[in-house]
Structures are given as structure tokens and as C-alpha cells.
Write a structure and sequence with these properties.
Elements (H helix, E strand, L loop, with lengths): L5 H11 L8 H28 L7 H14 L3 H19 L6 H19 L3
Length: 123
């Protein structure tokens, strides 16, 4: 059975609201942004494959950029731009020591991921 990528977005929303003695709010927020990106990216990749015959390359790291370019070439610029923003924000959450606007970044990540899933879930 194939995985429902929306579950990553549901997890992102859940983590956005959680804090625990086992982890900080910051770690939950950073993970939320990361899951929002992967929900959107994987669902968009599935959509592109099924609707347009997109074939992911052999390099999974390069495929993130390839998928964005694919949507640009299809004139689906908002999808490409949202995926790019989500990827940049995920990278910040995964690599930057500090993020001043983390809560705003997470809210925006979830909103853009919701948009992408709403446009690509009809396959």
C-alpha cells in the first residue's frame, strides 16, 4: 500500500502545537517545517509522475531541484515557487544554529504545503 504523504502534514500540524519535557518547542517547530516540506515534495512528485509521466532521476538529492524545474516547465509556477520556499525553510530548520522567525516560518510552511497538497491530491 502506498504511503499517504498528507500524514506528514498532519504530523507537522501536530508538532507545531506541542511541547514536552522530552524535547523543546524549537525542536518540535523545526521538525514541523521539515515534515511540511516532505509532505508537499513527495505528494507533488507522485502527482507529476502519475499525471505527466515525470520520472525521478537516480540522484535523490538532485531530484528536489529537478521536480521544481519540471513544474516551472509545465508553467505551474506557484507549485514550483512554493516547493522552493519550503525547501529553503526546511534547510534553515535543519542546518541553521538560530532562526529568529521560527514560528512564522512554520506557519508559512504549513500553509504552502496545504496549498501544494490541495493542487496535487486529485490523482
Amino acid at each position: 500500500m502506498s504511503f499517504n504523504w498528507k500524514e506528514f502534514l498532519d504530523l507537522a500540524k501536530y508538532l507545531k502545537e506541542k511541547e514536552s519535557s522530552q524535547y523543546t518547542k524549537q525542536s518540535a517547530l523545526r521538525t514541523s517545517a521539515s515534515r511540511a516540506y516532505f509532505a508537499a515534495y513527495c505528494q507533488a512528485r507522485k502527482y507529476a509522475s502519475r499525471k505527466f509521466g515525470y520520472t525521478p532521476g537516480s540522484d535523490p538529492f538532485a531530484d528536489h531541484g529537478n521536480l521544481r524545474r519540471f513544474f516551472q516547465n509545465k508553467q505551474m509556477l506557484q507549485l514550483a515557487n512554493h516547493l522552493n520556499n519550503l525547501r529553503l525553510w526546511r534547510n534553515r530548520c535543519d542546518y541553521d544554529e538560530s532562526i529568529d522567525d521560527l514560528e512564522t516560518l512554520v506557519k508559512s510552511s504549513i500553509k504552502k504545503a496545504e496549498y501544494i497538497l490541495s493542487k496535487t491530491s486529485n490523482i
